[in-house]
Amino acid sequence: MLQKPKSVKLRALRSPRKFGVAGRSCQEVLRKGCLRFQLPERGSRLCLYEDGTELTEDYFPSVADNAELVLLTSGQAWQGYVSDIGRFLSAFHEPQVGLIQATQQLLCDEQAPQRQRLLADLLHNVSQNIAAETRAEDPPWFEGLESRFQSKSGYLRYSCESRIRSYLREVSSYPSTVGAEAQEEFLRVLGSMCQKLRSVQYNGSYFDRGAKGGGRLCTPEGWFSCQGPFDMDSCLSRHSINPYSNRESRILFSTWNLDHIIEKKRTIIPTLVEAIKEQDGREVDWEYFYGLLFTSENLKLVHIVCHKKTTHKLNCDPSRIYKPQTRLKRKRPVRKRQ
């Protein structure tokens, strides 16, 4: 049982209405849901709206806050988005049966989870003001934000910059751990990293849909896709989100992790510290460590459900820790002419 209640959005199979329900366990949410929809608790169960996965007590803690669940009674079934889509298509006339079958086939093959997720996000956001950019064009999106933020891209760029700055603060806290002899070198490396980060505006372009293609992690419309987990066998489906669409998506996007594949605290910073201590005349390749700490070379955007620390097993590349040493050619002595 969880110490803190988890909030979810709950709907019954035959009801268009959704209610917010909070509980410390799957059974508690089920009980409250049955009470809310006046359904029998015996034989009822909960499943994920997105793909129909049935919830158990063991699986319940990994469910994201505000996830959408479906309450099923005995004899009822839910196959995920395909159930809603099939019902929607069935509203057309009989000549559309072929279309219904073709659509169901697309949503039932090996790539179905990705298609279901993208289609659901599209249907959820189709009526939202995604194209709007300024506070004047979409006031609800900016609710709760300081008045200095006048554009969506500006705020999301700031959000990314804040994350990168927090990584820099972590690195900046280490000089006292390297010893007096190595402190000067550590501060030199740190200064080089700071200068480069300032020159690229702390890579805030990663969240800015208006940035050039190579500088952002989203589509020009603002769609982000989960780039994890790094153990893909444990993920049921790929997640996507457009924080530019509405206030709820913007807030939810803040829970996604800009995660290091090679871990920052356990691997990168300790390796950098050790390299400075043991450099023995060699020059530490600070740009290699800069790439691992602050750039998409090692940073991946990951949905909170897919964020698994236990899957990180990578080490820094030993061949890139120091810069290659240039060998000076020995000058041959000039032979005296006889």
Automatic annotation (TrEMBL):
GO terms for biological process: apoptotic chromosome condensation; apoptotic DNA fragmentation; negative regulation of apoptotic DNA fragmentation. GO terms for molecular function: disordered domain specific binding; DNA binding; DNA endonuclease activity; enzyme binding; hydrolase activity; identical protein binding. SUPFAM superfamilies: CAD & PB1 domains, His-Me finger endonucleases. It comes from the Eukaryota. PROSITE patterns: CIDE_N. CDD domains: CIDE_N_CAD. It is found in: Cytoplasm; Nucleus. Residues 4-80 form the CIDE-N domain. Keywords: Apoptosis, Cytoplasm, Hydrolase, Nuclease, Nucleus. Pfam families: CIDE-N (PF02017), DFF40 (PF09230). Its main location: cytoplasm. GO terms for cellular component: chromatin; cytosol; nucleolus; nucleoplasm; protein-containing complex. Heterodimer of DFFA and DFFB. Interacts with H1-1. Nuclease that induces DNA fragmentation and chromatin condensation during apoptosis. Degrades naked DNA and induces apoptotic morphology. This is DNA fragmentation factor subunit beta. It comes from Pongo abelii. The gene is DFFB.
